[in-house]
Amino acid sequence: MTDILPSILPSFVLDGWWTPSDEDGATVVRDSSTGEPVTRVSTRGLDLAAVLDHARTVGQASLGELTFHQRAVLLKQFATVLNERKEELYALSERAGATRRDSLSDVDGGIGVLFTYSSKGRRELPNARVYLDGPAEPLAKDGSFLGRHIYTRLPGVAMQINAFNFPMWGALEKFAPAFLAGVPSVVKPATPSAFVAEAWVRILVESNLLPAGSLQLISGSVPGLFDHLGLGDLVGFTGSASTAERLRAQAADGVRFTSETDSINASILGPDATVGTPEFDAYVKQLLVELTTKAGQKCTAIRRAIVPQGLTASVVDALRAKIDERVVIGDPRAEGVTMGPLVSVEQRDEVLRQVDALLGAGGELLYGSTDAPAVTRADGTVGPAPDGAFVAPLVIGFGDVDSPAVHEIEAFGPVASVLEYADAAQAAELVARGGGSLVTSVATHDAAFAATVMSGIAAFNGRVLLLDRDDARTSTGHGSPVPHLVHGGPGRAGGGEELGGIRAVLHHMQRTAVQGSPEMLTALTGVWHPGAGTRSDRHPFRKSLAELRIGDQFASGEREVTLDDIETFAAFTGDTFYAHTDEEAAAANPFFPGRVAHGYLLVSWAAGLFVDPDPGPVLANYGLENLRFITPVSPGDSIRVTLTAKQITPRETDEYGEVRWDAVILNQRDETVATYDVLTLVAKQP
Ligand code: NDP
């Protein structure tokens, strides 16, 4: 990749690069700091229907050949190739106004999302194509009829419309879960930073790792998009609430439309967090980060600082000191610059318009100036940059906290308002006035205050960060969504869940309740259900993954439990709980007929009953899950165990896989004593 961008930015469609033959009317994209043209975008003549069709046919077919784990392994490979070429992406991002620190969120953040989804996909999803939701539901007394919820991928295309502020992270946070689910993506970046999106897509294309049709990129607008979308397709939109509303109205029935739109996020300073406390310092530091990172162009940035009565001046003074000490505004290519411009002069003008609206609605400028700031230029000189999109940090005070403007107007730049509250209830109420936010943070070391506020704000937020002295150093921060947790928010924030671990993957899949016999459900899900066929030809511990099949079973002989065994186990382990050692006390307990065997004794014995001791393909037992003791075992009772291969998960990158065994301990009356899953690692080959 060279530093010179093509005069018109190509799209990657139908597994090839495409540029319009007619460049008339192409939109010019400009450098955020200097206003110089960088490239142009246009989709004039692009056959959008063919692009979507390619995703639904070729993309669906190639992704459908892969299991969750195979897709997850590819995500890691994508992350690795992008990681190796980060410098190119940083350099390009500078042209869209991003400093090196901003690129940590966008470039490294995007790569991080791929790594996280790769690892979560392999740990939390089966190495299969169907995902099971919850346990089987018995629907007939004799076990011959069951119900189960399964997730299968949507058959269409994931159309991802992204915002200008995170051309890489914002796209990859949608692409990663869609890819893992097996749904092909069409990425439509926002025009002002489309050249950064083109760069990461180009790197992936050059890696030759992308399954055919799994990723397409449209550099430019998508007129008529909604005419081509229907049931089984998804739209994930990030941008302004007004565009989201307009597009949502155009989406046909059955199109899964979610949006992540501008939100008036809040940050509460607790009453205990007075000047000099670690919470006060963490609060001010966080405010600085949120004002200046990406020049405040973050969907999660703090727009409303909600502080105890009388504390506005202290917060603003502390913030001023930090800004004076640390913030150098300028061209991200210049040495020492810590805060870049907004993405475009259009955005700058829009932000200044919103600031005017806030001031006109009763706001008072407590810090900063709306005049064009003197900035550090690329050559190191300092002065005005009229063609750059620079805005200095601005803090606005609102004496009237009920002014609707402060809760409704988003100035999408380095702008925050300060409001004072009287008590926890009012602080929570002010947060809720935002009409649904992506995130609120609460800086307090007082758990009772946090709990009261939380009960008032949880329903209005996608995420809440509790900041105090114990986590301030390690906290990922107010404005940094993490792939493990939900990123999205209710109401005005759009209702989407772009991130949130496997939840975001399932968003690309359909949940269906399937009813049938154990045999049918076993065949359909690849997981053995009690009542389905079994095979007991030889001990399953002697079989490698190449030979083992679900339903392979071992049924042990019986072993009698004596009082002596129980006493020995109690003395040996130190577990002398009265139910095992004191006949009278045990009999007085409503659950026991008298002294009973320890559950752990039975589970240990069960292992002794089912194990095949010789060296073989079973490599390790790595745990038990879902252990339940159901019927107590008294001295004189006998137990036996059946062990059935329930689920086999070969690991893509290792010479072994996981086998989940269904274990059932029964007594001499065939009553179920205990049930659990035994988890083992088994070699792929003998
Ligand atoms: P827009 O809502 O105008 O654009 C967002 C995305 O939607 C862009 O990719 C844009 O493409 C696309 N788009 C616009 N119209 C259509 C359409 N008819 N069909 C399909 N796609 C369309 O937001 P902006 O980027 O202009 O930002 C404006 C405001 O949005 C900001 O000031 C801020 O308030 C908010 N915002 C919120 C963000 C968040 O993360 N929640 C992020 C960024 C902005 P194109 O660029 O080609 O027009």
TrEMBL record:
Entry-linked PANTHER family: ALDEHYDE DEHYDROGENASE B-RELATED
Sequence segments annotated as region (Disordered): 475-498
Residues of the MaoC-like domain: 557-658
Name this protein carries in UniProt: Phenylacetic acid degradation bifunctional protein PaaZ
Keywords: Oxidoreductase
Chain ranges of the Aldehyde dehydrogenase domain: 18-459
Organism this protein belongs to: Microbacterium candidum
One Pfam short name: MaoC_dehydratas
Gene name in the database record: paaZ
Gly residues bias spans: 488-498
Family label: Belongs to the enoyl-CoA hydratase/isomerase family.
